[in-house]
Design the sequence.
């Protein structure tokens, strides 16, 4: 009863992989933007903002991504809106990524020596000017490698959205495994798919890591 | 009178670091602050441009007043330049860009004009040809001179220097001191924490000896070095000679 | 729009929640012990370039770190029976966790080993210590000490990741949550409560690992 050829399996997985890529990019861009706001809040001088950002980060780093997706999925449903899985997936992953990225970037900002803050302060720059012209340009350099590194976590994180029914690579794989009775081959291909997406990113991150130990301009 | 400090107190936790500093400095004066490690020299200097907050007292620079706990420091800092022991140049910017940045961003001076200023300031410290060099391509002495140029570009009323030759190899100290000396001769008001006693004696108009968070003795360097009034200053001078 | 939250609908299932917490912790503990052991082995083999195991471990590390845990789990649970290797959900879950954590800890511990200055090993050699003594006291001990925080974070990340084991019907905390919400029809409340339980577990496990680190890994009282 096997009406699926290996080619059919691969083609379907290919479509799934496209959704994985799309979702990863969305989460990366939106999560990065939200992460930047979060970073500003986390480093703000207003204590309540700082606390709120810290609580947010603590929550999203201290709970499973799957719980976050469930909460988004069922939380929006409470508003009486029918939630398509892709929306819950994108929103959930965005929240998740923003917390991690904000924390990664905070580490980079804090790695900038105190003297840079003091020198720019003594030149009468405001906090925003210091950030914009002195701190962030330097922090960005050291942030590139861990940020690319985290993009691997995002790609892998998209696999969890299969559980709320988003038909990306893993979900497609599960359906194909059920339909073809060839789980070994199908999940092998699924794993290979993720490897093809993630390995270059990991490799690039490691390369950047080495490269940015070089001079600062 | 350009700078006035009245009853300045500062604590770090339980540590009472500045115990009521009073100081008057006139325009064009070159003031050398000396004293043992931990006597509060850096803290005093850093208070003058708001890098440290203080608990009580008043600082006034050219009519700009700074009170305890004040957070808006922009106006004051435009009048007070600072040069640090560790240079603290911005490593991602060239020497020229380092000097241009603050006039451009803070004073909103047009870029072309900023560049003119930057070239003039770098020329002043003898580094006209290093406009495009990055900090890590410069020696320590050159970096420190760029840092001086960077502070001067904001046309401060007073320049604070905290042990600006201490991180330098001995053979590079003089090129930096020469720049400072020249600034002094041009009438720049300078307040410098220094261990270069000979320089303080030659160039300084006023010597301030700090001891345990207080101005223990002050006066003209030649007088103080010749006849220190307190045993602490006698000890201090004796210890270095 | 006036939805009224009802958390008592979750609280009444406290037994299921407790059982779920128990299983999640067991899975984490077992996975951590075996996974870090595997990782130590891998790190040694990698750091000392023992052929051909160094290459094999290298491949293993890359494969695991560049694929999602849930796919590893599905491959083990659904895929391996095709090779005649039929595993229960617990066996599959534990194997998946160990393999996953093993790969990450291999890299973490290897970084620690490679950060040990050569001079210290040579100094130890000059003190006539044996190879095993040098390895235990001069290499492994300080390396573990150095990377313990990173290792602890990874263990917490793995614990949160076990949440997907519910998908192969391993009855851990998320499985309990799914069960409860299918009974009380209070999905949102249920998942909030369970997320907070996970949060408490993360904080607790991190604190515990800290203690363990200070007790057994650092073996030195803070000055
Ligand atoms: N950020 C800080 N936090 C806590 N204590 C500080 C801090 N900065 C300085 N202190 C303390 O304040 C006192 C005065 O320090 P300060 O740096 O002003 O001394 P100094 O005279 O500049 O010494 P040195 O010659 O070593 O530079 C010292 O006891 C020092 O330990
Ligand atoms: Mg000092």
Sequence:
């Amino acid at each position: 009863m096997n009406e699926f050829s290996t080619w059919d399996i691969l083609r379907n997985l290919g479509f799934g992989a496209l959704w994985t890529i799309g979702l990863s990019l969305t989460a990366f861009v939106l999560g990065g933007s939200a992460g930047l706001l979060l970073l500003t809040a986390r480093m703000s001088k207003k204590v309540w903002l700082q606390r709120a950002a810290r609580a947010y980060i603590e929550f999203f780093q201290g709970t499973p991504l799957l719980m976050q997706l469930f909460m988004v999925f069922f939380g929006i449903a409470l508003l009486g809106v029918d939630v398509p899985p892709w929306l819950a997936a994108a929103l959930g992953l965005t929240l998740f990524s923003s917390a991690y990225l904000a924390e990664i970037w905070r580490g980079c900002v804090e790695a900038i020596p105190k003297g840079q803050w003091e020198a720019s302060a003594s030149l009468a720059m405001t906090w925003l000017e210091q950030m914009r012209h002195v701190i962030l340009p330097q922090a960005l350099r050291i942030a590139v490698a861990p940020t690319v590194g985290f993009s691997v976590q995002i790609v892998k994180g998209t696999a969890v959205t299969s559980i709320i029914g988003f038909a990306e690579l893993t979900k497609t794989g599960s359906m194909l495994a059920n339909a073809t009775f060839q789980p070994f081959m199908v999940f092998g291909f699924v794993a290979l798919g993720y490897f093809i997406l993630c390995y270059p990113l990991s490799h690039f991150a490691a390369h950047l890591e080495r490269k940015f130990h070089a001079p600062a301009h | 009178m350009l700078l006035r400090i009245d009853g300045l107190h500062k604590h770090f936790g339980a540590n009472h670091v500045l115990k009521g500093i009073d100081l008057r400095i006139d325009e064009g004066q070159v003031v050398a602050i000396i004293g043992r490690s931990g006597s509060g020299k850096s803290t005093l200097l850093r208070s003058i441009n708001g890098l440290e907050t203080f608990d009580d007292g008043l600082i006034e620079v050219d009519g700009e007043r700074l009170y305890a706990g004040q957070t808006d420091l922009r106006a004051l800092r435009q009048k007070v330049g600072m040069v640090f022991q560790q240079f603290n140049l911005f490593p991602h910017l060239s020497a020229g860009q380092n000097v241009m940045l603050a006039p451009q961003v803070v004073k909103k001076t047009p870029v072309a004009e900023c560049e003119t200023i930057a070239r003039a300031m770098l020329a002043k410290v003898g580094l006209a040809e290093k406009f495009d060099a990055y900090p890590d391509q410069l020696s320590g002495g050159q970096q420190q001179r760029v840092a001086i140029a960077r502070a001067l570009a904001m046309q401060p009323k007073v320049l604070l220097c905290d042990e600006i030759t201490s991180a330098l190899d001995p053979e590079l100290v003089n090129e930096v001191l020469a720049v400072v000396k020249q600034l002094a001769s041009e009438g720049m008001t300078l307040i410098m924490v220094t261990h270069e006693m000979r320089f303080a004696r030659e160039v300084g108009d006023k010597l301030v000896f700090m001891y345990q968070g207080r101005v223990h003795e002050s006066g003209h360097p030649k007088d103080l070095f010749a006849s220190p009034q307190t045993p602490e200053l006698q000890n201090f001078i004796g210890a270095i000679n | 729009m006036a939805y009224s939250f009802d958390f008592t609908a979750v609280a009444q299932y406290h037994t299921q929640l407790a059982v779920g917490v128990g299983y999640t912790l067991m899975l984490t503990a077992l996975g951590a012990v075996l996974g870090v052991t595997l990782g130590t082995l891998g790190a040694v083999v990698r750091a000392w370039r023992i052929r051909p195991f160094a290459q094999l471990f290298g491949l293993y590390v890359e494969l695991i770190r560049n694929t999602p845990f849930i796919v590893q789990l599905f491959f083990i649970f659904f895929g391996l029976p095709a090779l005649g290797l039929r595993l229960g959900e617990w066996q599959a879950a534990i194997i998946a966790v160990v393999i996953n954590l093993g790969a990450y800890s291999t890299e973490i511990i290897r970084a620690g080993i490679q950060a040990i200055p050569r001079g210290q090993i040579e100094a130890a050699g000059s003190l006539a210590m044996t190879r095993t003594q040098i390895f235990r006291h001069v290499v492994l001990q300080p390396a573990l000490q150095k990377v313990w925080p990173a290792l602890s974070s990874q263990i917490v990340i793995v614990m949160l990741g076990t949440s997907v084991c519910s998908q192969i019907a391993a009855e851990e905390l998320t499985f309990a949550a799914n069960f409860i919400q299918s009974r009380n029809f209070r999905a949102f409340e249920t998942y909030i409560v369970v997320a907070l339980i996970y949060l408490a577990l993360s904080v607790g496990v991190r604190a515990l690992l800290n203690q363990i680190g200070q007790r057994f890994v650092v073996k030195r009282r803070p000055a």
Q: What stands out?
A: The longest helix of chain B spans residues 170-185. Chain B is about 40% helix and 25% strand.
